[in-house]
From TrEMBL:
SUPFAM superfamilies: 2Fe-2S ferredoxin-like (SSF54292), Ferredoxin reductase-like, C-terminal NADP-linked domain (SSF52343), Riboflavin synthase domain-like (SSF63380). Its cofactor is FAD. This is PDR/VanB family oxidoreductase. Keywords: 2Fe-2S, Iron, Iron-sulfur, Metal-binding, Oxidoreductase. It comes from Saccharopolyspora ipomoeae. The keyword Metal-binding applies. Gene3D superfamilies: 3.10.20.30, Nucleotide-binding domain of ferredoxin-NADP reductase (FNR) module, Translation factors. Pfam families: FAD_binding_6, Fer2. Transmembrane segments: none annotated. Residues 7-108 form the FAD-binding FR-type domain.
Amino acid sequence: MAALTRSHRQRGRVVEAEHVADGVRRIVLEVDHPEPASPGTHVDVELPIRGGRQVRSYSVVRSEDGGRRLTLSVQLSPASRGGSEAMHALAVGEELTVTGPVQSFPLSVGAGRYVLVAGGIGVTALVAMASALRRRGADYELVLVGRSRRVMAYVDELRAEHGERVRVHVDDEGTPLSVPDLVGEIASAPNADTTELYMCGPIGLMDAIRSSWTEHALPPTSLRFETFGSSGRFDAEDFVVRLPQHDREVTVPRDASILEALTAAGVETLSDCRKGECGLCLAKIVDVDGTVDHRDVFLSEAQKQRSNSLCLCVSRAVADGGDRASLTLHLT
Ligand code: FES
């Protein structure tokens, strides 16, 4: 994303910055033009990345003082495209350009039951939602999933606020989440048809929940998610994209998306969400040398298996060993 295009850009000043889990930094911004941030909102932040200005989106974890103080939390990702590194480098007192709260993951009113599933740093999209549900007196459950407790932010705080409504699944404690059990429980409950599941986390977790949700024929509109271009199954690495229709070959660095690399090379493509959700950037895969790492939530699991197309904004390729991977694509 090249620049903030929304009209309500404003100045945000870093007033607090601290580590809240291994590799996770909590950053509190004070903004010039406060407005209420409803649950599920994020802000777009303009950051110095690779010598230019790029935009990244971060969930509003907490909004205080009428929206003047916004808390974000960012995990330093080894597969970072530069955003998390830039956010971790911010010091108290620094200023940056941000939007006001943007709603792309709204919390409905009136569902019979709410299940919120957070994988890793995905918890940031669900903290405010859980608080809103508690205040409303709703029937809800918060499921926190992580590899290790030391990298999971907000667990103690959420336990203190929500008590028994929080379930914690930690891989290295031998309590991993069983997606079939979780979705099976929802499907067999009397209020299955009015239960909504909100999720934010790694693409593998979200794909597994989506498949299980479909298998149980639960209402598709009751499954809601936030992605922010989730991490993939493989670490990001450089690869080559060939475009026979343009007679071009473009290298995609590990810290850029195909879409960004093509744009930088002057190749125009369609895009909208840039988070792997809308499918507007879909391109046909003509040939692949390596493995495609589908990171979107637009294609179904079966379409990802067939791998005839991919979302340029988030998906990548990795080598099967040896040389760099290469993808031959046809842009639509
Ligand atoms: S721009 Fe929406 S999926 Fe890529």
